């Protein structure tokens, strides 16, 4: 049994990706986790994977975690507050202000409710995709409100810390505005770009490289879930999209008249603003430090990537990030390795000396 902070029995409502992942992580800590879901099959799967046990009518949880779709979160939280009058209830939905408003309309006892949101997930859902380490090192927002005391809410922070996540305190409105910017609008932009590929020629799609893969990576997300999320956070998302639209309109105007005075500067300014924005995204350990990249060509045969990573370690270089790319039909792959700038030149020299081919290196 692992050391843990949380000293309460936990009830998880919703045996999907997040609920099952929470159950897996808490069960590994020795917490008694009971699982409930409208789908008996989902509960059985989650139990089989080790996320807890089926809930019973005799359970007296101290903490209830609601992990259901956003459009039924408030009603489910209200039901759990009524059914377990001694329990603290939280949810992990990706929007917060609307849920709190609905709970107040329903007359729920929000003195025992505190909404949270783990900034973690996967493109695929369901209990079979769950992982006990899903939350490690990830921000987990605690969306506070005036109706609950911090002493009562302490168990929420214990839960987050036990799951290896990093607690971040925000108001419900701050949370919704923040996730509109860093999650909801990027999802829409990725989806809109990917939709253009449906009408692209086979020849164009065959040229797909890492750029289009990066932009469209999250476009395979569940449409039904995202309709709920976007509808629940519509105003902040629409406000940001209007500013994106203004930028796109400026780019269109400049490209339609590329020789007009100021057109090239408009494009350059947009690109520069993008550089400034991406530089603000925290990297490893929350640092905004920029890294150097070198692209290593790897034969598409078993064991080559493992050999490269082993040799980088033997050279005493700490790899900050890694991205892989394959070209259709090619028998070679490309590993883009990120390192601190001062390590770039020595690493290129050392890998070249060991027979590795570095793209762009002479």
In short:
The protein has 362 residues and is α/β, with parallel strands linked by helices. Helices cover 45% and strands 16% of the residues.
Which terms summarize this structure?
single chain; 362 residues; alpha/beta; 6-phosphogluconate dehydrogenase C-terminal fold; Alpha-Beta Plaits; 3 domains; four-stranded antiparallel sheet; 13 helices; 12 strands; 16% strand
What's the arrangement of secondary structure elements?
Layout lengths: L9 E4 L3 H12 L4 E4 L3 H9 L4 E2 L8 E4 L3 H14 L4 E4 L5 H10 L8 E4 L20 E6 L9 H9 L3 E6 H26 L4 H4 L4 H7 L6 H10 L1 H23 L6 H16 L13 E8 L4 H11 L6 E6 L5 E8 L1 H13 L3 E2 L4
Parallel strand pairs: 1-2, 1-4, 2-3, 4-5, 7-8
Antiparallel strand pairs: 6-7, 9-11, 9-12, 10-11
Helix pairs in contact: 3-4, 6-10, 10-11
Q: What CATH first level of the largest domain would be assigned?
A: Alpha Beta
- Can you name the CATH architecture of the largest domain? 3-Layer(aba) Sandwich
Percent of residues in helices:
40-55%
Q: Averaged pLDDT, please? A: 91
> Can you tell me the overall shape?
globular
Overall structural class, as computed from helix and strand content, comes to: alpha/beta
Largest sheet: 5 strands, parallel
State the end-to-end distance.
55 Å
Q: Ranges with pLDDT <50 over ≥5 residues?
A: none
Task: Tally the structural domains.
Answer: 3
